[in-house]
Design goal:
Cytochrome Bc1 Complex, Chain D, domain 2, single chain, mainly alpha, 12 helices
């Protein structure tokens, strides 16, 4: 018993217990922590192809090894190519599949472009290369994009109004921001792009990772946006969905015009 007690009091015993606790904690975290959306299988050839495409089309702004560019691009103020280490495949897919990257010219915000420069296979390759540089958000599984079968639009509306409406408007029609930037309209946007935008926070948008909004939350938001646009404006003319601004302008131009016209007509009739 004395020998056992002596071993327990040995200085090395504390370090051994700490190491054992760390191993157990790490194992439990790996087993129980929320898993990110799984990425598609990536091969070494795909990463190599993506690196070649990246260096030919993206390195001039983002650096030869995607480390970023600290110098102004084309001598344009505040135009820099950020580091893509840790950006993940989801960010690459969103930016390139919506035609925002590569940018035609530096500006306050990269606009959506319908004509995408690269094929889906080339975008997958570049995404695989960027993902290989450091851990980052992966593309979502199809389960989280099935808004028609598993989404809850009512719950998604509550989440949307709390987190998105202040920029994209309550009708998801978009809205103006500061310094020439804007929140784009969401009508017609693919579900995968809405999900990836929430996950990665492109442009001026905040990041809603899986700890902020779970994959179920994101799917419900997509369901709300899609169903809202499918229903349209049953109450009458939508006026762009911009809310009080467009409604007030309509009343000012047409309502006040009708009142003035009526007053003139009554005046002439009385004379």
């Amino acid at each position: 018993m004395n020998a056992l007690a002596a071993r327990r009091r040995h200085p090395a015993a504390i370090a051994l217990l700490l190491m054992l606790a760390l191993v157990v904690t790490g194992g439990l975290y790996a087993a129980l922590a929320p898993k990110p959306a799984s990425a598609a299988a990536v091969t070494a050839d795909q990463v190599e192809e993506g690196q070649a495409l990246f260096r030919a089309n993206c390195a001039s702004c983002h650096g030869l090894n995607a480390e970023g560019n600290e110098l102004p691009i084309n001598d344009t103020k505040n135009a820099f190519g950020p580091s893509l280490v840790g950006a993940g495949a989801a960010a690459v897919h969103f930016q390139m599949e919506t035609g925002r990257m590569p940018m035609a010219a530096p500006g306050p915000q990269a606009p959506r472009v319908d004509k995408v420069k690269f094929t889906p296979e080339q975008i997958d390759a570049i995404a695989a290369y960027v993902a290989s540089l450091g851990p980052g958000p992966a593309r979502p599984d199809e389960e989280w994009l099935d808004w028609e079968g598993q989404g809850n639009a009512g719950r998604g509306g509550t989440i949307y109004r709390s987190n998105c409406a202040m920029c994209h408007s309550s009708a998801a029609a978009g809205g103006a921001l500061t310094r020439g930037k804007h929140a784009p309209p969401l009508d017609g946007v693919e579900p995968v792009h809405i999900y990836e935008a929430m996950l990665t926070g492109p442009q001026n948008m905040p990041v809603f990772n899986d700890q902020n909004l779970t994959p179920e939350d994101k799917r419900d938001v997509i369901a709300y946006v899609k169903e809202m646009h499918a229903v349209g404006s049953p109450g009458g003319i939508g006026l762009g969905g911009y809310g009080p601004a467009s409604e007030g302008m309509f009343i000012w131009l047409f309502g006040l015009g009708i009142m003035i016209g009526t007053a003139v007509w009554l005046g002439q009739k009385g004379a």
